[in-house]
Amino acid sequence: MSLRQTGPIPGHQAREVLEVVVVGAHGGAGTSTLTALLPAAWDMGSIKPLLEVGRSPLRAKGRPMVLVVRNTAVAAKDATAAIGALWDWDERVSALAIVSDGGPEPRDATARFALLEGRVGGVVRMPRVRALRLMDDPCLVDLPGKARQALDELRRLAAPPTSRRW
């Protein structure tokens, strides 16, 4: 998979674009929305089709990587497969972004995500924001505090090692 760099965000004030690779563990995870909200330079879409053919999923080339997944048991299984494949190709996930689908997280999903915590830089749960489904441009949505905090945590985890304060 080659890196696709996103363009500037139309109609918005210039914002610093992060050199972050955002990839979904499956389709519909929320990858494009998070790419726009961070804003991240590299939107990779879903990694799942590449895992099925046994190819190297992607090369982040030293850039921080955010793996996006929904909060379901099936999605947690996809995240496990994606992180395993990325480890096999010496790629590391800076942050696992678990995007809520609006319902409670199933116990099976929570257990699987807990097992992944030691293989990623951090786990961030992004709450469901209904308005994101209603707007063409996620950047126009007035995000609630918990969503803004989750984005701030993703930015912190995806920051270059020299700018981290830990």
Task: Write a structural description.
The protein is of the alpha/beta class. Helix content is 34%, strand content 17%. It is built from 6 helices and 5 strands; from the N terminus they run βαβαβαβαβαα. A 5-stranded parallel beta sheet has the order 2-1-3-4-5, with helices on both faces. The chain is globular and about 40 Å long.
Helix and strand succession?
A: EHEHEHEHEHH
Structural class: alpha/beta
Helicity level, as a percent range? 25-40%
**Total number of helical segments?**
6
Assembly context of the chains: single chain
The CA-CA distance between the termini, in Å, is 32 Å
Low-confidence stretches: 1-14
How many extended strands? 5
| Sheet with the most strands: spatial strand order | 2-1-3-4-5
The biggest beta sheet is recorded as:
5 strands, parallel
Our Rg estimate from Cα atoms comes to: 15 Å
Mean pLDDT: 85
Overall 3D form: globular
Q: Beta-sheet strand percentage?
A: 15-25%
Kindly list the characteristics that best describe this protein.
alpha/beta, 6 helices, disordered N terminus, five-stranded parallel sheet, 166 residues
In short:
The protein has 166 residues and is an alpha/beta fold. The protein is built from 6 helices and 5 strands, in the order E-H-E-H-E-H-E-H-E-H-H.
List the helices and strands and how they pair.
Blueprint: E1 18-24, H1 31-37, E2 40-46, H2 48-52, E3 65-70, H3 73-88, E4 95-99, H4 107-116, E5 123-126, H5 130-134, H6 145-158
Parallel strand pairs: 1-2, 1-3, 3-4, 4-5
